[in-house]
Specification:
CATH class of the largest domain: Mainly Beta
Largest sheet: 7 strands, antiparallel
Strand content: 15-25%
Oligomer: single chain
CATH architecture of the largest domain: Roll
CATH topology of the largest domain: SH3 type barrels
Structural class: alpha+beta
Radius of gyration: 34 Å
Helix content: 40-55%
Shape: extended
Order of helices and strands: HHHHHHEEHHHEHEEEEEEEEEHHH
Length: 357
Protein backbone atom coordinates (compact mmCIF):
# COMPACT_ATOMS: atom_id res chain seq x y z
CA UNK A 1 0.00 0.00 0.00
CA UNK A 2 2.83 2.41 0.82
CA UNK A 3 4.41 1.86 -2.62
CA UNK A 4 1.04 2.42 -4.26
CA UNK A 5 0.44 5.67 -2.37
CA UNK A 6 3.89 7.00 -3.26
CA UNK A 7 3.31 6.26 -6.95
CA UNK A 8 -0.20 7.76 -6.77
CA UNK A 9 1.12 10.97 -5.21
CA UNK A 10 3.76 11.26 -7.93
CA UNK A 11 1.16 10.87 -10.69
CA UNK A 12 -1.18 13.39 -9.04
CA UNK A 13 1.64 15.94 -8.74
CA UNK A 14 2.62 15.39 -12.37
CA UNK A 15 -0.99 15.80 -13.51
CA UNK A 16 -1.60 18.94 -11.45
CA UNK A 17 1.67 20.44 -12.66
CA UNK A 18 0.63 20.27 -16.31
CA UNK A 19 -2.98 21.22 -15.50
CA UNK A 20 -2.13 24.42 -13.61
CA UNK A 21 0.58 25.25 -16.12
CA UNK A 22 -2.04 25.34 -18.89
CA UNK A 23 -4.24 27.72 -16.87
CA UNK A 24 -4.54 28.48 -13.16
CA UNK A 25 -8.29 28.83 -13.65
CA UNK A 26 -8.56 25.11 -12.87
CA UNK A 27 -8.32 25.99 -9.16
CA UNK A 28 -12.03 26.85 -9.33
CA UNK A 29 -12.87 23.18 -9.89
CA UNK A 30 -13.70 21.33 -6.63
CA UNK A 31 -12.60 18.02 -8.17
CA UNK A 32 -9.04 19.36 -8.47
CA UNK A 33 -8.99 20.09 -4.73
CA UNK A 34 -10.23 16.55 -4.05
CA UNK A 35 -7.10 15.16 -5.72
CA UNK A 36 -4.92 16.95 -3.15
CA UNK A 37 -6.51 14.92 -0.35
CA UNK A 38 -6.98 11.63 -2.23
CA UNK A 39 -3.74 10.00 -1.04
CA UNK A 40 -4.41 10.80 2.63
CA UNK A 41 -8.01 9.59 2.27
CA UNK A 42 -6.94 6.24 0.79
CA UNK A 43 -4.26 5.80 3.46
CA UNK A 44 -6.83 6.29 6.22
CA UNK A 45 -10.09 4.88 4.84
CA UNK A 46 -8.94 2.49 2.10
CA UNK A 47 -9.30 2.57 -1.67
CA UNK A 48 -11.72 5.06 -3.16
CA UNK A 49 -15.09 3.59 -4.09
CA UNK A 50 -16.50 4.29 -7.55
CA UNK A 51 -20.08 5.53 -7.71
CA UNK A 52 -22.18 3.82 -10.39
CA UNK A 53 -24.15 6.88 -11.45
CA UNK A 54 -25.39 5.05 -14.54
CA UNK A 55 -27.63 2.94 -12.32
CA UNK A 56 -29.44 6.06 -11.18
CA UNK A 57 -29.42 7.68 -14.61
CA UNK A 58 -31.44 4.74 -15.93
CA UNK A 59 -34.47 6.24 -14.19
CA UNK A 60 -34.20 9.47 -16.17
CA UNK A 61 -36.41 8.05 -18.92
CA UNK A 62 -39.13 7.26 -16.40
CA UNK A 63 -38.85 10.71 -14.87
CA UNK A 64 -39.10 12.44 -18.24
CA UNK A 65 -42.11 10.37 -19.24
CA UNK A 66 -43.85 11.02 -15.94
CA UNK A 67 -43.14 14.74 -16.14
CA UNK A 68 -44.47 14.98 -19.69
CA UNK A 69 -47.78 13.32 -18.78
CA UNK A 70 -48.19 14.92 -15.37
CA UNK A 71 -51.01 17.40 -14.73
CA UNK A 72 -48.51 19.48 -12.69
CA UNK A 73 -50.96 19.57 -9.76
CA UNK A 74 -49.23 16.79 -7.84
CA UNK A 75 -46.00 15.90 -9.70
CA UNK A 76 -44.60 13.90 -6.80
CA UNK A 77 -47.69 11.70 -6.70
CA UNK A 78 -47.60 11.21 -10.49
CA UNK A 79 -43.96 10.11 -10.34
CA UNK A 80 -44.65 7.68 -7.50
CA UNK A 81 -47.66 6.24 -9.34
CA UNK A 82 -45.68 5.70 -12.54
CA UNK A 83 -42.76 4.06 -10.71
CA UNK A 84 -45.22 1.79 -8.92
CA UNK A 85 -46.89 0.87 -12.22
CA UNK A 86 -43.58 0.03 -13.89
CA UNK A 87 -42.53 -1.97 -10.85
CA UNK A 88 -45.75 -3.99 -10.99
CA UNK A 89 -45.32 -4.68 -14.72
CA UNK A 90 -41.74 -5.84 -14.17
CA UNK A 91 -42.87 -8.08 -11.30
CA UNK A 92 -45.61 -9.71 -13.38
CA UNK A 93 -43.52 -10.25 -16.52
CA UNK A 94 -40.72 -11.75 -14.39
CA UNK A 95 -43.04 -14.51 -13.16
CA UNK A 96 -43.34 -13.33 -9.57
CA UNK A 97 -45.43 -14.92 -6.84
CA UNK A 98 -48.50 -12.99 -5.67
CA UNK A 99 -50.84 -13.37 -2.69
CA UNK A 100 -54.51 -13.88 -3.52
CA UNK A 101 -56.63 -12.12 -0.91
CA UNK A 102 -59.70 -14.14 -1.89
CA UNK A 103 -58.23 -17.61 -1.52
CA UNK A 104 -55.68 -16.54 1.12
CA UNK A 105 -53.04 -18.47 -0.82
CA UNK A 106 -50.01 -17.61 -2.93
CA UNK A 107 -49.80 -18.39 -6.62
CA UNK A 108 -47.35 -17.71 -9.42
CA UNK A 109 -48.09 -15.58 -12.45
CA UNK A 110 -49.38 -17.65 -15.38
CA UNK A 111 -47.11 -18.43 -18.34
CA UNK A 112 -49.72 -16.83 -20.60
CA UNK A 113 -48.82 -13.51 -18.95
CA UNK A 114 -45.04 -13.93 -19.00
CA UNK A 115 -45.09 -15.13 -22.62
CA UNK A 116 -46.18 -11.64 -23.69
CA UNK A 117 -42.72 -10.44 -22.64
CA UNK A 118 -40.58 -13.53 -23.27
CA UNK A 119 -41.80 -14.18 -26.81
CA UNK A 120 -42.07 -10.61 -28.05
CA UNK A 121 -38.84 -8.72 -28.80
CA UNK A 122 -40.74 -5.49 -29.48
CA UNK A 123 -42.14 -5.52 -25.93
CA UNK A 124 -38.65 -6.31 -24.58
CA UNK A 125 -37.04 -3.41 -26.42
CA UNK A 126 -39.81 -1.02 -25.40
CA UNK A 127 -39.05 -1.81 -21.76
CA UNK A 128 -35.29 -1.43 -22.25
CA UNK A 129 -34.45 -5.15 -22.03
CA UNK A 130 -31.55 -6.54 -24.08
CA UNK A 131 -31.28 -10.33 -24.15
CA UNK A 132 -27.69 -10.39 -25.46
CA UNK A 133 -26.51 -7.99 -22.75
CA UNK A 134 -28.23 -10.06 -20.06
CA UNK A 135 -26.68 -13.31 -21.35
CA UNK A 136 -23.06 -12.46 -22.27
CA UNK A 137 -20.58 -15.00 -23.55
CA UNK A 138 -18.71 -16.76 -20.75
CA UNK A 139 -15.08 -15.82 -20.17
CA UNK A 140 -13.91 -19.40 -20.65
CA UNK A 141 -15.52 -19.51 -24.11
CA UNK A 142 -13.12 -16.89 -25.50
CA UNK A 143 -11.48 -16.57 -27.97
CA UNK A 144 -14.16 -17.13 -30.60
CA UNK A 145 -14.39 -16.51 -34.34
CA UNK A 146 -16.39 -13.47 -35.48
CA UNK A 147 -18.64 -13.18 -38.53
CA UNK A 148 -16.26 -10.79 -40.33
CA UNK A 149 -15.24 -12.30 -43.68
CA UNK A 150 -11.64 -12.49 -44.87
CA UNK A 151 -10.70 -10.11 -47.66
CA UNK A 152 -9.30 -11.66 -50.81
CA UNK A 153 -6.13 -9.55 -50.74
CA UNK A 154 -5.34 -10.80 -47.20
CA UNK A 155 -5.38 -14.49 -48.14
CA UNK A 156 -1.97 -16.19 -48.01
CA UNK A 157 -0.31 -19.61 -47.95
CA UNK A 158 -0.03 -21.73 -44.82
CA UNK A 159 3.22 -21.15 -42.85
CA UNK A 160 5.61 -24.05 -42.27
CA UNK A 161 5.01 -24.18 -38.53
CA UNK A 162 1.31 -24.81 -39.08
CA UNK A 163 1.90 -27.25 -41.93
CA UNK A 164 3.97 -29.41 -39.56
CA UNK A 165 1.05 -29.90 -37.18
CA UNK A 166 -0.49 -33.38 -36.98
CA UNK A 167 -3.72 -32.27 -38.60
CA UNK A 168 -5.11 -32.40 -42.07
CA UNK A 169 -4.57 -29.31 -44.23
CA UNK A 170 -8.31 -28.71 -44.60
CA UNK A 171 -8.62 -28.46 -40.79
CA UNK A 172 -6.62 -25.22 -40.81
CA UNK A 173 -8.33 -22.16 -42.26
CA UNK A 174 -7.33 -18.53 -42.37
CA UNK A 175 -9.85 -16.15 -40.78
CA UNK A 176 -10.21 -12.39 -40.56
CA UNK A 177 -10.91 -11.75 -36.88
CA UNK A 178 -11.34 -13.33 -33.46
CA UNK A 179 -13.07 -12.00 -30.35
CA UNK A 180 -10.73 -12.30 -27.35
CA UNK A 181 -13.05 -10.85 -24.70
CA UNK A 182 -16.26 -8.87 -24.38
CA UNK A 183 -14.84 -5.68 -25.87
CA UNK A 184 -11.70 -6.49 -27.91
CA UNK A 185 -11.12 -8.10 -31.29
CA UNK A 186 -7.86 -9.23 -32.86
CA UNK A 187 -7.26 -8.89 -36.58
CA UNK A 188 -4.55 -7.79 -38.97
CA UNK A 189 -2.88 -4.55 -37.91
CA UNK A 190 -3.85 -4.72 -34.22
CA UNK A 191 -1.09 -4.26 -31.64
CA UNK A 192 -0.87 -6.82 -28.85
CA UNK A 193 1.16 -7.43 -25.72
CA UNK A 194 2.55 -10.96 -25.81
CA UNK A 195 3.41 -12.85 -22.64
CA UNK A 196 2.41 -15.71 -20.35
CA UNK A 197 0.67 -13.29 -17.96
CA UNK A 198 0.45 -9.58 -17.19
CA UNK A 199 2.82 -9.89 -14.24
CA UNK A 200 5.79 -11.23 -16.20
CA UNK A 201 7.75 -9.70 -19.02
CA UNK A 202 5.72 -8.52 -21.99
CA UNK A 203 6.70 -7.94 -25.60
CA UNK A 204 4.91 -5.78 -28.15
CA UNK A 205 3.86 -7.14 -31.52
CA UNK A 206 1.45 -6.51 -34.37
CA UNK A 207 -0.97 -9.13 -35.68
CA UNK A 208 -0.29 -10.04 -39.31
CA UNK A 209 -2.35 -13.21 -39.90
CA UNK A 210 -4.91 -15.29 -37.98
CA UNK A 211 -5.79 -18.99 -38.46
CA UNK A 212 -8.38 -21.33 -36.99
CA UNK A 213 -7.17 -24.88 -36.23
CA UNK A 214 -9.80 -27.62 -35.78
CA UNK A 215 -8.63 -30.91 -34.29
CA UNK A 216 -10.96 -33.61 -32.95
CA UNK A 217 -13.81 -31.14 -32.63
CA UNK A 218 -11.71 -28.69 -30.62
CA UNK A 219 -10.94 -25.27 -32.07
CA UNK A 220 -7.85 -23.22 -31.36
CA UNK A 221 -6.53 -20.02 -32.87
CA UNK A 222 -3.03 -19.19 -34.04
CA UNK A 223 -1.66 -15.75 -34.90
CA UNK A 224 1.39 -14.57 -36.78
CA UNK A 225 2.85 -11.67 -34.81
CA UNK A 226 5.45 -9.21 -36.10
CA UNK A 227 7.83 -8.24 -33.30
CA UNK A 228 8.59 -4.63 -32.35
CA UNK A 229 11.38 -3.33 -30.15
CA UNK A 230 11.57 -0.19 -28.06
CA UNK A 231 13.65 2.64 -29.47
CA UNK A 232 13.42 5.07 -26.56
CA UNK A 233 11.32 8.05 -25.58
CA UNK A 234 10.31 10.42 -28.37
CA UNK A 235 11.48 14.00 -27.75
CA UNK A 236 8.30 15.60 -29.10
CA UNK A 237 5.54 13.28 -27.83
CA UNK A 238 7.46 12.21 -24.69
CA UNK A 239 6.17 8.67 -25.28
CA UNK A 240 7.87 5.35 -25.95
CA UNK A 241 8.77 4.60 -29.57
CA UNK A 242 8.38 1.20 -31.23
CA UNK A 243 10.42 0.08 -34.23
CA UNK A 244 9.44 -2.81 -36.47
CA UNK A 245 11.88 -5.72 -36.72
CA UNK A 246 12.27 -8.47 -39.28
CA UNK A 247 11.41 -11.13 -36.70
CA UNK A 248 7.96 -12.73 -36.74
CA UNK A 249 6.52 -15.59 -34.69
CA UNK A 250 3.50 -17.90 -34.96
CA UNK A 251 1.94 -18.24 -31.50
CA UNK A 252 -1.27 -19.50 -29.97
CA UNK A 253 -3.90 -16.94 -29.07
CA UNK A 254 -4.41 -18.53 -25.64
CA UNK A 255 -0.72 -18.16 -24.80
CA UNK A 256 -0.73 -14.42 -25.34
CA UNK A 257 -1.87 -11.52 -23.26
CA UNK A 258 -3.73 -9.91 -26.09
CA UNK A 259 -4.74 -6.30 -25.75
CA UNK A 260 -5.69 -3.87 -28.45
CA UNK A 261 -3.48 -0.83 -28.68
CA UNK A 262 -4.14 2.79 -29.50
CA UNK A 263 -1.10 4.18 -31.31
CA UNK A 264 -0.08 7.27 -33.20
CA UNK A 265 0.95 6.18 -36.71
CA UNK A 266 3.96 7.80 -38.36
CA UNK A 267 4.69 5.07 -40.93
CA UNK A 268 4.51 1.30 -41.20
CA UNK A 269 7.82 0.78 -39.35
CA UNK A 270 7.68 3.33 -36.50
CA UNK A 271 4.93 3.78 -33.90
CA UNK A 272 4.45 5.62 -30.62
CA UNK A 273 2.60 4.08 -27.67
CA UNK A 274 -0.21 6.37 -26.56
CA UNK A 275 0.18 6.23 -22.78
CA UNK A 276 -2.76 8.63 -22.43
CA UNK A 277 -5.15 6.01 -23.81
CA UNK A 278 -8.10 5.08 -21.63
CA UNK A 279 -8.04 1.49 -22.91
CA UNK A 280 -6.16 -0.62 -20.34
CA UNK A 281 -3.96 2.24 -19.04
CA UNK A 282 -2.05 -0.02 -16.64
CA UNK A 283 -0.79 -2.19 -19.50
CA UNK A 284 0.12 0.91 -21.50
CA UNK A 285 2.20 2.27 -18.63
CA UNK A 286 3.90 -1.07 -18.02
CA UNK A 287 4.96 -1.67 -21.61
CA UNK A 288 5.95 1.95 -22.27
CA UNK A 289 8.22 1.88 -19.19
CA UNK A 290 8.38 5.66 -18.83
CA UNK A 291 10.10 7.34 -15.88
CA UNK A 292 7.95 9.88 -14.06
CA UNK A 293 9.96 13.02 -13.23
CA UNK A 294 9.62 14.59 -9.78
CA UNK A 295 8.33 18.17 -9.77
CA UNK A 296 10.76 20.42 -7.89
CA UNK A 297 9.70 23.49 -5.85
CA UNK A 298 11.23 25.80 -8.47
CA UNK A 299 9.19 24.07 -11.18
CA UNK A 300 6.03 24.51 -9.10
CA UNK A 301 6.79 28.22 -8.76
CA UNK A 302 7.31 28.60 -12.50
CA UNK A 303 4.18 26.53 -13.20
CA UNK A 304 1.94 28.68 -10.96
CA UNK A 305 3.34 31.90 -12.42
CA UNK A 306 2.70 30.77 -15.99
CA UNK A 307 -0.76 29.47 -15.13
CA UNK A 308 -1.79 32.80 -13.60
CA UNK A 309 -0.39 34.61 -16.64
CA UNK A 310 -2.56 32.52 -18.97
CA UNK A 311 -5.59 33.05 -16.74
CA UNK A 312 -5.13 36.83 -16.61
CA UNK A 313 -4.81 37.04 -20.40
CA UNK A 314 -8.03 35.11 -20.81
CA UNK A 315 -9.80 37.44 -18.35
CA UNK A 316 -8.46 40.57 -20.10
CA UNK A 317 -9.64 39.31 -23.48
CA UNK A 318 -13.13 38.71 -22.11
CA UNK A 319 -13.22 42.21 -20.58
CA UNK A 320 -12.09 43.76 -23.87
CA UNK A 321 -14.84 41.90 -25.72
CA UNK A 322 -17.41 43.09 -23.19
CA UNK A 323 -16.19 46.71 -23.53
CA UNK A 324 -16.45 46.49 -27.32
CA UNK A 325 -19.99 45.14 -27.02
CA UNK A 326 -20.92 47.99 -24.64
CA UNK A 327 -19.48 50.60 -27.03
CA UNK A 328 -21.37 49.14 -29.99
CA UNK A 329 -24.58 49.07 -27.98
CA UNK A 330 -24.06 52.71 -26.89
CA UNK A 331 -23.43 53.84 -30.48
CA UNK A 332 -26.54 51.98 -31.62
CA UNK A 333 -28.65 53.75 -28.99
CA UNK A 334 -27.28 57.13 -30.05
CA UNK A 335 -28.19 56.46 -33.68
CA UNK A 336 -31.71 55.45 -32.63
CA UNK A 337 -32.16 58.59 -30.51
CA UNK A 338 -30.95 60.87 -33.32
CA UNK A 339 -33.33 59.18 -35.75
CA UNK A 340 -36.25 59.67 -33.36
CA UNK A 341 -35.42 63.37 -32.79
CA UNK A 342 -34.95 64.22 -36.52
CA UNK A 343 -37.92 66.39 -37.92
CA UNK A 344 -40.00 64.99 -40.70
CA UNK A 345 -39.64 66.53 -44.16
CA UNK A 346 -42.64 68.79 -44.93
CA UNK A 347 -42.57 67.75 -48.57
CA UNK A 348 -42.78 64.09 -47.76
CA UNK A 349 -46.21 62.43 -47.92
CA UNK A 350 -46.04 61.49 -44.28
CA UNK A 351 -45.08 65.03 -43.34
CA UNK A 352 -47.98 66.54 -45.33
CA UNK A 353 -50.40 64.16 -43.73
CA UNK A 354 -49.21 65.15 -40.30
CA UNK A 355 -49.35 68.90 -41.10
CA UNK A 356 -52.86 68.59 -42.52
CA UNK A 357 -53.96 66.61 -39.52
Amino acid sequence: MEIFLIALQAHIDHFLYHLIKSSAQWVNKPKVHMLLHLVESIGRFGLAVLFATEKFESFNGVLRKASAHSNKQAPGRDLATLFDTYGSIRFLFSGGTIYDVRTLKTRQVSKMVTSVFLENQIIQKSMGYNFDASHPTRVEDFPIKTVVSLRKEDQTTLPNKLADLDTKPNNISQIAQIQINKHDQVHKGVFVAVGHNCVGELAVGMIDLVWEVTEEGQKSYVCKVIAFKQKGVDDFYEMQQLVRTRHSEVISARETTVKTWQVEHTNIDHYIINTASLHDPQLHRKVSNLTLPTVSPSQWKECISKGFSVWSKTTDNKEDEEDEDDELEFEHKQVQEEADMAPLDEESPNGNDIMQA
